[in-house]
Amino acid sequence: TMSRVEDAEWLRWVTRQFGSIAGKDKEISLEEFKSALQVKESFFAERFFALFDADGSGSISLEELLRALRRLVHGDHTDKLRFLFQVYDVDGRQSLEQRGAGGGSSHGSGRAGPPCAHPGSGSIDADELKVVLGWCLRESSVSLPEERLGDLTRALLEAADSDHSGSITFQELQEQLEAFPELMENLTISAASWLKPPVPPERRRPRCLSRGYWHNHRGQLGCLGGYTALNVLLFALAALWHRGHGPAILLARGCGQGLNINCALLAVLMLRRCLTWLRSTALAEVLPLDQHVRCHQLVGHVVLALAAAHSAAHVANFARLAQQDGHPTLAESLLWARPGGGGVAGTAPQTGLALLALLLAMGTFSSPCVRRRGHFELFYWTHLSYLPIWTLLLLHGPQFWRWFVVPGSLLVLEKVLGWAWRRAGGLHIVEVHLLPSQVTHLVIQRPKSFHFKPGDYVYLNVPAIASYEWHPFSISSAPEQPETLWLHIRSLGQWTSRLYQFFQQLEPPSLDPTAPRRSQGWAQVSRGRGDTHRLCRVKCYLDGPYGTPTRRIFTAEHAVLIGAGIGITPFASILQSIMYRYRRRRQSCPSCHYSWCEELKDEEMTLRKVDFIWINRDQKHFEWFLSLLSKLEAEQAELEPGGRFLELHLYMTSALGKSDVKGLGLQVALDLLAAKEKRDSITGLRTRTQPGRPDWSKVFGKVAEEKVGKVQVFFCGSPALAKVIRGHCERFGFRFSKEHF
């Protein structure tokens, strides 16, 4: 119950909100009410409006709204249940202001009791229940066959209709829902949150001061500190060496020494094969290998800043010297090579200007706004200027070769080996599935020499789409799958959209033998539920594989895998490999059916428990990997009936939760039907799909209570969600890793 002060403040806040919505007439019409509630469908808005409109005038006054919402949002269980009953009792005309003999508690003097049904109704029959559940499904973006909707209706009606009269009374509904005490505590209208005062953010100390933050970032922070100290030291030594030549030369030489180490570091951070190898060594626990792309970006920005300062200092020095007798003008110093000008044959000023121009172009076209808005070609071609940049650096800086010789040699070796391997044998895409939400599932023939780890990724090139573009994608098949490998690619950019459209428009081979065959490939088309399956033969090239943080999963004790949307892709490979190894670990005698656990080497798999959490926006996205998840469930049930080595947790964010009055009945019906049939109505899996978003505090709290072993959390998804999950991991002391390309 709200205190008097809180009650008064809340009323003032609602009054202000009402005034902004209602305008001069001080009344809210149905259309304004729908707009304010922001509901997907109009059914529930109309039901709520009818219940709030106590006098039946066709509009809601401030007085009516406040009275109704106070009883609903801050009322007791009976108030909330009565409102739920009235929403479902479609053929009755009820109002929250009507009183019945049911009684009810009050929160203050003069408050009316709970409302009752209109005398002409008072029960919910099967037809009414089916209508409301149908609208609940639409509001939750769930599509089920008509017979499935009938199953849900019968399940809820049979459970609540205790007297077998064919309809549900308020008392029967109350008795049924009291079996779910957590529902009674949270029952509210989520759509009415626009009428609630904003909750001030909780004051917390900065994340960087928490112990968990330092534990999860110790490698990154240590390397960042060492990197900063090395740059400062080199700058200071170079500046001290030239301290007698004026401030401009002092700054130029200090920045120049910094450019030596940083331009060499840019090459080091491009050595993907070397970085993949380092993941298998003890250095993986110290170096931030998972952040090598971000480190590359950081060093690139440092190079730009140092190059700008270095150039500005030299220009200032040339301008100062030009004012003295016997020295060339500023333009002559910058544009013409001369003996003693630095670099090879005195070309330091000219090579320096060329370097600055190339670096600025590369930095400009590497920005996210360029890469993610359909201009990948600009990023690609300007990034190829690293070849002339390093050539000019060798001509410009007399000491640069000493810093560059080792990483440069390794880079050349990697590029030559990669190019030779890619061009030695072109591969072919042999099968394609066009899945919902424009996801392309590619099945590629796997060379015998191609070895990878679960969770690895490759760079893919399809000449029929773009001969020069290479894009990274996680491998979604297990290494134990010998003949093919899978890639699941969602259409989010220009190249991925063209890939989907290419296979969508790929025609079957012509029956006319004289007709020219398309050079890209041939296809046989067959359509199934929700996807288009095509057999084809389209040439492609792969570069890789390259390692990711998920390689550490098999050395964890309790792994929590979290995928958001298409972020399941690396975990698809990992889950298949986990179950393969788990199947090898568990053996049984064919005669007596005695089963035992075969010991595997610790470095192969130390897992004791795996929790897989997959978050999707709507129902159709689950279709991407339903067959895989169903197979994993069946395998675990066969190997270990009732076992909990692998637990699946599925969440659909568009679905209305049990705490929402619009979704409570649907979720209870889904629970009842799942318990009866041992499978989920939305996905068909044994695992029940949960509505809404995960409560991370409860999820990680449960993981911590299990105490199976040291917990490591692996995430693949949006950066915004990664930040939320990382914060919870720091709070619980779990190690956190995020997929990076």
UniProtKB/TrEMBL annotation:
Region (Disordered), start-end ranges: 96-122
Location relative to the cell: Membrane
Top-level taxon in the UniProt lineage: Eukaryota
Chief place where the protein resides: membrane
Domain EF-hand as annotated: residue spans: 40-75, 148-183
UniProt-listed PROSITE patterns: EF_HAND_1 (PS00018), EF_HAND_2 (PS50222), FAD_FR (PS51384)
GO MF term set: calcium ion binding; superoxide-generating NAD(P)H oxidase activity
Gly residues: bias regions: 100-111
Protein name: NOX5 oxidase
Any one GO biological process: superoxide anion generation
Keyword field contains Calcium: yes
Alphabetical UniProt keywords: Calcium, FAD, Flavoprotein, Membrane, Metal-binding, NADP, Oxidoreductase, Transmembrane, Transmembrane helix
Chain ranges passing through the membrane: 559-582
InterPro entries cross-referenced by the UniProt entry: EF-hand-dom_pair, EF_Hand_1_Ca_BS, EF_hand_dom, FAD-bd_8, FAD-bd_FR_type, Fe3_Rdtase_TM_dom, Fe_red_NAD-bd_6, FNR_nucleotide-bd
Bilayer topology: Multi-pass membrane protein
Positions of the FAD-binding FR-type domain: 422-552
Gene: Nox5
A cellular-component GO term for this protein: NADPH oxidase complex
